[in-house]
Amino acid sequence: MDLIKVAEEAFATGKEHPKFKSGDTVTVAYRIKEGNKERVQQYRGVVIKISGHGEKKRFTVRKMSDNIGVERIFPLESPFIDSITVNKVGKVRRAKLYYLRGLTGKKARIKEKRVAKQA
């Protein structure tokens, strides 16, 4: 058991990401390598599902790009994720929001949960 924990700690990125759930709007700062150059791309969209557990946990972010829905799956423990910021906390009743794929325009909006600001 000890050896497994040592191996997991060696591969863990050690980054603390904020807690988020499906329905939240997040911005993922993702490092992209193009040739020998590296840049950070901001990917902002709605989390439509979170799957897996532990080291294999991943989440799918959906955004609209020129009226075309684009979904991207990010591993939570990826070393290429610089940061994750939660922009809006959504008010949804289910864990997997696949129904958003069939909705367009104002119907595809998610109500925002009112969060009391702490002083």
Overview features:
SH3 type barrels, five-stranded antiparallel beta sheet, about 120 residues, ribonucleoprotein, mainly beta, globular, Ribosomal_bL19_CS
Give an overview of the whole structure.
This protein is mainly β and 119 residues long. It has a domain at 22-100: SH3 type barrels, CATH 2.30.30. The chain is 8% helix and 41% strand. A 5-stranded antiparallel beta sheet has the order 4-3-2-1-5, with no helix packed on it. The mean pLDDT is 86. Keywords: Ribonucleoprotein, Ribosomal protein. This protein is located at the 30S-50S ribosomal subunit interface and may play a role in the structure and function of the aminoacyl-tRNA binding site.
